Amino acid sequence: MGRAVEQRRAVSRVQYFDLLRVVAIIAVVMLHVSITEWHELTPDNPRWDDLAVFGSMLRYCVPVFLMISGALFLNPERDVTWNSLFRKSIPRLLLLYAFWSLLYAVLVVYGPGGSRDPAEFVTRFVTGHFHLWFLLALAGLYLVVPILRLIARDRRVAWYFVALAIPFAFVFPLLTRIPVAGELLAEVLGTIKLELVLGYSAYFLLGYLLSTCRLSRRAVIWLSIAGLAGLVATAVGTVLVSHAQEESDELFYRYLTINVAAVAVAVFVLARAWGERFTLTGRSLGVVMFLGANSLGVYLIHPFFQWLYKQLGFETDTGPVWLTVPVLTVLVMVPSLLVTVLIRRIPRVGKYLGS
């Protein structure tokens, strides 16, 4: 009986990871669809507020992807070796970056309206398209996986790492924008230079810790309430700061903020709670696993279809925000998914370029 329970938990765990991938990739596409027009508007435009709400609801997407990776790579039951990291995982990410950065550089520089300037092409190829930063960030985390696995072995040390990251990585950077006091805080932080807990490593550890710890129903409820509060704080903070600046301000949109982290944690634990109670079967299981397996490909490809629709004159400003954003999200996701599937079927190289 005990073995059967453990097997069911393993199945549920895989399923909720796939479910998280699906939720996160939809959020990524919708975020990029909505934020394009948001950047072009000023806060005094009525459409700006609606687009700001969309952006506020979706910022959890990248942290959730990082938490999934952390839950997998820091799991002591997973065989993560130096060879697997430095001969497979990291080179694969760098190959993806080089390939897709090259394609997008060609598209932007030599496509319609491009400058055809070789210097710009080289710059865009090296720096990458706006969304490809995630591949380099993930590669950076893979570099420190051997260290993070050692930290994760002792749960007290791992939680201590997260506890340090909360103020230094997620809270203090927000406070540095406060007049006078913020400047003093920034100077003090610059002197301390506690950089060990900065960056995305806290999300990696959080993913592992939250996927393996015991979570009571009360804990899930309180974390969900904190996530809801984080979502409200993201929206309200963005609106207030942007209106004060009279231009779009992404201070509360940053992935390394306590408000966004709270939402990401809530989404993660709710998915885990769902996975512990329910099991997908049949067609629904197939759909979720299919979408989850192709989520990275959709991430890599979807900006092309955003660009294509822009060339055709179809953007979110063609109608009401609450209609055009979801519609355009679907119209971007579906062909991105189809192209991902086609690329992965290319003999020998497809599995390296589409996922």
Automatic annotation (TrEMBL):
Its topology with respect to the membrane? Multi-pass membrane protein
Q: Which domain of life is it from?
A: Bacteria
An example Gene Ontology biological process: enterobacterial common antigen biosynthetic process
Q: Please give one Gene Ontology molecular function term for this protein.
A: O-acetyltransferase activity
Query: Where is this protein primarily located?
Result: membrane
Per UniProt, the keywords (alphabetical) are: Acyltransferase, Cell membrane, Membrane, Transferase, Transmembrane, Transmembrane helix
Acyltransferase domain location is 15-343
What GO CC annotations are associated with the protein? plasma membrane
What InterPro entries is this protein classified in? Acyl_transf_3_dom
Q: Which residues cross the membrane?
A: 20-39, 51-74, 94-112, 132-151, 158-176, 196-213, 220-240, 252-275, 287-309, 321-343
Q: Where in the cell is it found?
A: Cell membrane
Q: Which family does it belong to?
A: Belongs to the acyltransferase 3 family.
Q: Which PANTHER family match?
A: O-ACETYLTRANSFERASE WECH (PTHR40074)
* Protein name, UniProt field: Acyltransferase
